[in-house]
Predict the 3D structure of the following.
Amino acid sequence: MRDPVRFLRRVAVAAALACAPLAAHAETPVKGGTLTAIIQPEPPMLVMGLNQQAPTQTVAGKIYESLLTYNFDLSPRPSLAKSWEVSADGLTYTFRLQEGVKWHDGAPFSAEDVLFSFKTFLPETHPRARALFGRAESIEAPDAATVVIKLKEPFPAFLQAFEVSTTPIMPKHVYEGTDFRANPKNATPIGTGPFMLDKWEKGSYIRLVANPHYWQAGKPYLKDIYFKIIPDAASRALALENGDVMQSQYNDIEPFDVARLAKLPNLTMTKKGYEFVAPLMWLELNTRVAPLDDKRFRQAMMFAIDREFVRDKIWFGLGRVATGPINSVTKYYDPNVPKYPYDPKKAIALLDEMGLKPGANGVRATIKFLPLPYGETWQRLGEYVKQALGKVGVAVELESTDAAGWGKREANWDFDVTGNFLYQYADPSIGVSRTYLSSNIRKGVMFSNTMGYANPEVDRLFEAAAKENDAAKRQEMYSQVQKLIVEDVPVAWMLEMEFPTLLNTRVHDAVTTAIGVNETYADAWVSPK
Amino acid sequence: MLRFLLNRLAKAAVVLGVVVVLNFLLIHAAPGDPATVMAGEAGAADQMFVDQLRKQFGLDRPLHVQLGTYVSHILQGDLGFSFRQQRPVADLLLDRLPATVVLTLSAFTLALAGGIALGLLAAVNVGKWADSAITVVALLSYATPIYWVGLMLVLVFSVNLGWLPAFGYESIGAGHAGLARMGDIARHMILPVATLGLFYMAVYTRMTRASALEVSSMDFVKTARAKGQSEWRIVTRHVLRNAILPVLTVAGVQAGQLIGGSILVETVFAWPGLGRLTFDAVLQRDYQVLLGVFFVTSVLVVAFNIVTDVLYVLVDPRVEIAK
């Protein structure tokens, strides 16, 4: 040790650096800050029971609450329910509610509101909630602070259904006996959450202010939140860069800009907070159309597409290469499935085996690809797929449309191949099976089994697993079903998408659960400049 | 003059009637509808959800019935109700109109005044360095996409220099009032107005220059010069007055188009105007809002054309009023 002083100084610096994150974490929340966040596109309304678009969830998630919310590992934690229990037979769910909760208009919250939401409002307006509560035999309130739900048959995923976008609790006193969609109060949403709508300048911004009567004493810490509507992606990046806004989420920032922004001294980036939705991206393959009706052709597509290239060069490293139908952060994921590494030779061998020989122009088959019209990155995916499949002799014609046209074509099976991504909602029986069950082949319905895929064994396993209370047995069934589906390739899985949440370094405790930016933000705070 | 105006108004009414019907049919010919869009945005939808929305939006009725309802509402001055935004269309338009009017009128005034002045300057100095400089700058401004110009201005004046706000109509949450608020809005206007104005200024510069050069070679200009009139008087009284006619015609048509052109600028600068409302409504197939915007812009274009015709008569006495 030639210079002990220098050595000690280095140790001291290293120790200080090591402790810095802890120290930052241990900082006491400061009350009264203002958070500014991007919101894009502008939500059509802020009544969570009537609209569950992603931006609606982000804003209205601060106005409304549900019974539970979820840790990053998807285990439930209290929200409007302070405790809960599930009977041994998996049929009865009992929730005990928080006390002293009030609606924004001062009316008291009770089990009656929960009953109204679960039995009347949500089954009428909310497709996901409708499917969930269709499984209930009875929903009752033995007293003002307890709700008991009895299911017709076991459905262990039920406990994953109580986050705010799936089952927002709606005020009975505001909506009972009215036309929910036409209720004039929809303009001023009334929830139990830590923030209330103060002002909505359409096309410009939404301001939420702290709820002074929030049931968690001393919270929220923020005085108000401004959601600024910035329609252009480049302008959004600039706004984050120069500090005009402090938060972006989901697809607000184009993937090619994320790494640059994340390195700026005034910004931090986290990919956490999307575990609940766990988006999985794929190419949807219409299995009714030749040559996509042949499993070997679909497998050849998997071998011909370099999905690491898709992740690294098109999504700029945001995401993980998907192995199959279940996202690795969703429950019951199993990595032990047939693998499709990038191997154009295997793709060519499969196409040869099918008898698809190249013609004089080198083309074996021609298919059409309809990219998801969600911006440049998805367009690049289309261009890459055209190039990659072209190398194995499959010509790809790119089509184009806008979101409305895409929705109509996807729902009505009017495509050969299209890009898509779906949320998994924590459990395969909620967000995964819907894509592959033959009972969900429903023309005119988006995000159903639009590929026309039918495998009786897959149907049987999904249906049995949904009712199985024993987690080990469930895992076994889901492992089997993953192997079968990956072998059949009804969709060509690309990436488990990762959304970046960029936050100004002054923002603290924003992303604390598996629903990330859709959380109430009761705990979030902003340190003074 | 009164008969002339009545004649023009009658024709305008016919044009508007045709436009209303065509707008309606065109919008409904686009694939998808508001219910499809909202189902897609919800991320999970069933048939009941889509059917409920279609019923609520009135899309479950035959097209001719929907058209009949729409036309009868328009005749009563009712622009309809946006179910997506849960507000009357007239309210939505009125909310957004001031921002667009402020933006487009300022840009239009800048473009017209600047364009005519620069065009004349170039014509007077034809072949000299001032002419070359103006021509090159005008060509560049015309050829560069508005979108890119906007972003570059933001990058330079907002991100790098920090002089001007990058986007928005005013500082949100700053609590400005009165004069301070006006000043704040003015600061926010500089970049979008410059972006939108530059493009149109280039058009008017080139038109004025060409037109002024053509007029300068005419006999009456030579006569004026022979009479020994000052160059200033020749340019302002003889050249400008004649050269400005084609510029006014184009400006009249473009005044309406400016609202369309502002879509890009409003998007880049997050300007809460009609252009953005239109853009969003197209993507969301918000039929009622789109029909409302198209109707209002059609009325504006027709109105601007009538104003141009009147101006023409006033500027050029040779133009006869239709008998």
